[in-house]
Write a structure and sequence with these properties.
Elements (H helix, E strand, L loop, with lengths): L1 E3 L6 E5 L3 H13 L3 E5 L2 H11 L3 E5 L7 H9 L6 E5 L4 H9 L4 E4 L4 H15 L2 E4 L2 E4 L4 E4 L2 E4 L2 H11 L6 E2 H8 L8 H15 L9 E4 L3 E4 L3
Parallel strand pairs: 2-3, 2-4, 4-5, 5-6
Antiparallel strand pairs: 1-3, 7-8, 8-9, 9-10, 11-13, 12-13
Length: 228
C-alpha cells in the first residue's frame, strides 16, 4: 500500500492489481494534490476501508480473488462513498451493470489521464455537500439538507425543488421552469403545485416561513435561492 500527496484532505483509494497502471494513476492524482493509497486486491481494500475513510475509490473490475463487482456490493452495504469503476470491458451492458450496482462513474481502459482527473473531480464535487448559505447545506449523497447544523429530511419532490434552486443560487426560476423540471411530461401539474411545494419546503427549512430567508419570491417572475 502506498500513500502520496494531499488535496483539501481528499483521500482516494485505488484498487488495481496491475502495478504499472496503479503507479500511473497515483502519480497523476498526486500531481493534482490528492492523498492517494493503492491496493492490489479487493480483500485488502475491504479490510482497510473503515479505517481509511476514503472520499473516493477507483475500483478495477478484474481483480484477483474477489472481483470488482463483489467489492462494490460490499462497499455499498456499508457506505455511500463514491466509487468509479475501471475496466477493460466496453460493452454497454457492463457499464449499465456498474451504474445499477451503485457505481458513481465508469472509466474504460485504455484511458486518458486527463479524463480520469476530470471524472475524479466531478464525482468528488457531486459528493461534497453544497454550501449555498452559511446556514444551509445540501448533501446530495445522502439526499438531505442541513440547516444550521441540523439535518432535515425532505420528500423526493421537496429535495428536487431545493436542488433545482441551488443549481444556480440567486437566479430566478419561473413557475414554468420548475414545473418542467419537477413534473416532466405531466400535463396535470399546475403553478399551484409549485406554490404548494415551495410552501412545504419553507416550512421545513425556514424558522419563519412567512418571512423566508432562504427561498425568496420574486413577484411576477418566480422563486430564487439566496446566494450569500
Amino acid at each position: 500500500m502506498k500513500g502520496v500527496g494531499m488535496k483539501d484532505q481528499k483521500r482516494i483509494l485505488i484498487c488495481e492489481d496491475e502495478s504499472d497502471i496503479a503507479e500511473i494513476l497515483c502519480s497523476s492524482l498526486r500531481s493534482e494534490g490528492y492523498y492517494v493509497e493503492s491496493i492490489a486486491s479487493g480483500e485488502e481494500l475491504l479490510r482497510m476501508f473503515a479505517e481509511a475513510q476514503p472520499d473516493l475509490v477507483l475500483l478495477d473490475v478484474r481483480l484477483p480473488g474477489m472481483d470488482g463487482w463483489d467489492v462494490l456490493e460490499r462497499i455499498r452495504a456499508r457506505s455511500n462513498c463514491p466509487v468509479i469503476m475501471i475496466t477493460a470491458f466496453v460493452r454497454v451492458a457492463d457499464k449499465v451493470r456498474g451504474l445499477h450496482s451503485g457505481a458513481d462513474d465508469y472509466i474504460t481502459k485504455p484511458f486518458k489521464l486527463l479524463e480520469v482527473r476530470a471524472r475524479v473531480e466531478a464525482v468528488l464535487r457531486r459528493a461534497t455537500p453544497l454550501q449555498v448559505h452559511p446556514l444551509l447545506e445540501i448533501d446530495d449523497v445522502h439526499k438531505v439538507v442541513n440547516v444550521g447544523g441540523k439535518q432535515v429530511s425532505l420528500s423526493p419532490k421537496e429535495y428536487a425543488l431545493i436542488s433545482l434552486l441551488a443549481s444556480e443560487p440567486g437566479r430566478v426560476f419561473s413557475r414554468q421552469e420548475i414545473l418542467a423540471a419537477l413534473w416532466p411530461g405531466d400535463n396535470y401539474a399546475t403553478a399551484q403545485d409549485v406554490q404548494k411545494y415551495v410552501y412545504l419546503l419553507r416550512k421545513r427549512l425556514e424558522n419563519d416561513p412567512s418571512n423566508p430567508k432562504f427561498i425568496l419570491t420574486v413577484r411576477g417572475f418566480g422563486y430564487r435561492l439566496v446566494n450569500h
